[in-house]
Design brief:
Structural class of chain B: alpha+beta
Distance between the termini of chain B: 28 Å
Shape of chain A: elongated
Helix content of chain A: 40-55%
Largest interface: A-B, 57 and 57 residues
Shape of chain B: elongated
Oligomer: heterodimer
Largest sheet of chain A: 6 strands, mixed, barrel
Number of domains of chain A: 2
Number of strands of chain B: 12
Helix content of chain B: 40-55%
Chain lengths: ~400, ~425
């Protein structure tokens, strides 16, 4: 295939050529970055929580009246007894928070008392001896809390537990390469001993601000008795989640009516918790996907439209070429090659533009660097799109009969 | 002449329906997407208190110990009880208010309504005049109520509708956490966006339902909500919140004019020095006094995703326009013969140019109308999202006119190059080649 005649033909259509190339460049730049964003969001929202998500539900319980710390703790224990006795319930525990909740108590962890900077941030989970079992968490090292270590805590008290469990991510950060069990850490200013290491437990927030200490959590052997923001985490027997979700609030109200469990979000299955936590990320990924598809469709339609015009414009020339002995294949190849040349010009400019846009996103939106794979993927997509779009008009061109030439001149 | 051009344009557009549809659709999609995202951005980055926002300031001081000190860092986002009260009582500004968010259990008198939790704001009296809060019934409480820790409450119109069927409830009693409060005022419909005075409680959350004096809330031990940062021996101990080394309160002042702003900044520096010499503050003096809009900007209140979507949509519009320019160019050039005849018959370049611009204008108009419909559809989809700002996404008059200008303007712009290019044709050459 001779490229020279194609180039000289394109020189006569400078504006059109430039516009197609520019459209391809812009589309490539946007599609590459959008696909990259989609991939990042999808990777983010499929991070594991470490929790037995299938069977877990969370109840947010708020008390109506005022009470003493001892009364508050007694009411929590009473509620837990009611929940654990409910048919279909495997286990229940009380906590101040749960993974993917969105916000909660985060605190700094230090290795020495007089250290100025925190060694790491961490999510603080309150839990009793049945916290691990209820959530379905695995103990990687050490031991679980003992029942006698669990005490009630009021907001008036300082958080100073003698023992804690930490997640493996936190243990690895604080004591890389050595055993964390038995070590002393400083939590909220007071020393405490690590007795157990939990394999995997996600933080309560998966937002960007909390990503510095994702998966780093401390579990303290306490029940937090405050009138608002107490959570019961319940694990249902397999297949009985829906029944328990209906029965649990009723049983709690029957036991003590002076409470508020919000109709809308007072009782949530973990599936709903997950959907809420990643709502924005999923929405963004879907939006990006739709925009990509529409962009590609418009670019393809534009190429079809413009090439159709060129074919129509050149019917005479095509007829002449056919009359002079060019085969249909030759005509088809001519238009395909022409498109390829324009597309290559477009994607070259598009690659530069894509990288430029990505660098700008990195500075303004805390994005990561675009991986080369996405760039190459985008290039392949657009080259194929161009060839696919040009196929129909090129076929039409190849069917122009040789007689067209003498007739119209 | 315009009528004739219009007729020519419509004929030409009808001749190639698929292509016309493609051009109109491309413009409509581009306009629809950019207007949807731009409207959301416009709503989110709006001024919460037009007219008053330029006089509102958010003083920041640094009361922390040397633990974790880094030079050049900003002071904390909130103030301690001690500093808040000191600044409040110093009365160096025209108005000042100290506040925090909270949640309170409301126990309705009617047995037909179950007790429920309402979002609350615990604040000092100046909140209402300073933020120009409109009252439906009654009035705000006064400074004397703050001092006396009076059991008074201001409620929202929504709560008044729920509990009192919309009737004037001032003077009646509202039971909150086993305590009786006297209702002194009902706030009329008011929703500043963003929720600027406390961005810890959701940037675009609606108005709280219950307003109680800050001093009273401590006395009755109502639960406060929001972000709290402690250092040293600080803990969230509700009994001794007054002395805890924790920042958890928002403090706003109204300052009229640059002189007052400068004087207040000097006062903050002076106050910090004084506290340092008393040994309460340990860090070097570090004060800030951002204005309301600046404060929203610093805290990146408008979600990054929304900005990203807007940029994306405009990139999309650009591709759609380039696409339309290409198609229009091809179309106009294809008609070289026809245009050549017109030129040969005496039409000037200008007239041919005008004719082609009318044609691109028609496409732009159709695309604009389509884009507007798509923007309405897009905003409807946005409103169905569960984010706290979703309900705000409405097209106002200014955005409506911007949409239209954008549509017609961009398609005229898109028609400019092809039309200019098409008029460059030498009439004789075209006639000869027929």
């Amino acid at each position: 295939m001779q490229i020279k005649p194609i180039l000289s033909a394109l020189r006569r259509h400078k504006a059109g050529t430039f516009l197609i190339a520019m459209q391809i460049a812009l589309t490539l730049a946007i599609v590459c970055n959008a696909l990259f964003i989609i991939q990042q969001r999808l990777a983010h929202l499929s991070e594991p929580t470490g929790v037995d998500e299938q069977n877990i539900l969370v109840i947010q319980n708020e008390w109506v009246g005022s009470s003493t710390p001892a009364q508050a703790d007694a009411r929590i224990r009473e509620d837990l007894r009611v929940l654990r006795e409910l048919p279909g319930v495997a286990d229940a525990t009380a906590s101040n928070s749960y993974p993917l909740r969105g916000s909660g108590w985060d605190d700094g962890v230090k290795l020495k008392a007089d250290q100025l900077q925190d060694s790491s941030g961490a999510t603080i989970y309150f839990g009793d001896e049945r916290f691990l079992g209820t959530l379905g968490l695995k103990l990687a090292a050490g031991r679980n809390f003992r029942a006698e270590e669990i005490t009630g805590m009021d907001v008036r008290d300082r958080l100073a537990p003698p023992v804690v469990m930490v997640t493996r991510a936190l243990a690895d950060k604080l004591f890389p390469g050595s055993d964390a069990v038995g070590q002393t850490i400083y939590l909220a200013g007071s020393p405490t001993t690590i007795v157990g290491v939990v394999d995997l437990l996600q933080a309560q927030s998966v937002d960007r601000w909390a990503s510095a200490f994702a998966y780093r959590s401390v579990i303290v052997p306490r029940r937090l008795g405050i009138s608002l923001g107490g959570f019961y985490i319940v694990r249902a027997m397999p297949g009985q989640l829906q029944d328990v979700m209906r029965a649990a609030p009723k049983a709690l109200f029957a036991n003590n009516p002076r409470r508020v469990i919000n109709d809308e979000d007072g009782v949530l299955s973990f599936k709903e918790v997950r959907a809420r936590a990643y709502e924005r990320d999923r929405g963004m990924a879907i939006l990006m996907g739709v925009i990509c598809l529409v962009l590609l469709a418009i670019t393809a339609a534009g190429i079809v439209g413009l090439t159709s015009f060129w074919v129509g414009q050149r019917r005479k020339q095509i007829g002449v070429r056919r009359a002079l002995g060019a085969t249909r294949q030759d005509i088809l190849h001519y238009f395909m090659t022409e498109n390829l040349l324009i597309s290559v010009g477009g994607v070259l400019a598009g690659m530069l533009l894509a990288v430029a846009i990505n660098l700008w996103l990195v500075t303004r939106f805390e994005m990561q660097r675009l991986s080369l794979l996405y760039l190459l993927g985008g290039v392949v997509i657009l080259l194929l799109l161009g060839q696919g779009a040009v196929l129909a008009p090129a076929m039409r061109a190849s069917r122009v009969p040789p007689v067209e030439a003498p007739r119209s001149v | 002449m315009f009528g004739y051009y219009l007729d020519l344009a419509l004929r030409s557009l009808r001749r190639n329906r698929m292509l016309t549809a493609l051009m109109v659709l491309a413009i409509a999609l581009g306009i629809g997407a950019s207007m949807t995202t731009l409207t959301v951005l416009h709503v989110l980055s709006g001024d919460p208190l037009p007219g008053a926002s330029s006089t509102l300031f958010y003083p920041q001081i640094d009361p922390r110990d040397m633990d974790g000190y880094e030079e050049g860092k900003k002071p904390p986002d909130q103030v301690t009880w001690i500093d808040g009260m000191n600044l409040l009582h110093a009365k160096r500004a025209a108005h000042q208010a100290l506040m925090t968010g909270g949640a309170v259990p409301v126990q309705p008198a009617q047995s037909s309504i179950d007790p429920f939790y309402s979002d609350a704001r615990f604040t000092s009296a100046d909140f209402f005049p300073m933020f120009q809060v409109p009252f439906l019934y009654g009035h705000a409480w006064g400074e004397s109520d703050d001092d006396a820790k009076a059991r008074v409450v201001v409620i929202s119109r929504a709560l008044n509708d729920k509990l009192f069927g919309g009737k004037d409830s001032t003077g009646q009693t509202l039971r909150v956490k086993d305590t009786a409060f006297r209702i002194v005022g009902v706030i009329d419909s008011w929703r500043p966006n963003p929720h600027f005075y406390d961005i810890n409680m959701g940037n675009y959350s609606g108005l709280e339902d219950v307003f109680v004096p800050l001093t009273t809330s401590g006395d009755v031990r109502l639960d406060h909500n929001g972000s709290m940062d402690c250092w040293g021996t600080g803990s969230g101990d509700d009994d001794h919140m007054e002395t805890q080394p924790c920042v958890w309160l928002q403090f706003w002042v109204q300052l009229d004019g640059a002189d007052q702003v400068k004087a207040y900044r000097d006062y903050l520096v002076h106050y910090s020095q004084e506290q340092k010499s008393l040994g309460r503050f340990e860090r070097p003096v570090n004060v800030a006094l951002p204005g309301l809009m600046e404060w929203l900007d610093i805290n990146k209140v408008v979600p990054g995703d929304v900005r990203l979507q807007t940029w994306l949509a405009f990139g999309f519009l650009l591709v759609c326009l380039v696409n339309t320019v290409g198609l229009m160019l091809a179309k106009f050039l294809r008609r070289s013969g026809e245009l050549g005849v017109r030129r040969a018959l005496g039409a000037s370049k200008r007239e041919v140019f005008a004719q082609l611009l009318v044609e691109s204008g028609v496409i732009g108009l159709a695309g604009g109308v389509g884009g507007l419909l798509l923007a309405f559809l897009g905003l409807w989809l946005v409103r169905r999202q569960p984010s706290d700002y979703a309900a705000l996404a409405h097209l106002d008059l200014s955005m409506l006119s911007i949409t239209f200008l954008l549509a017609v303007g961009s398609s005229l712009l898109a028609g400019l190059l092809p039309a200019w290019r098409a008029c460059q044709i030498a009439p004789a050459l075209q006639l000869k080649s027929q």
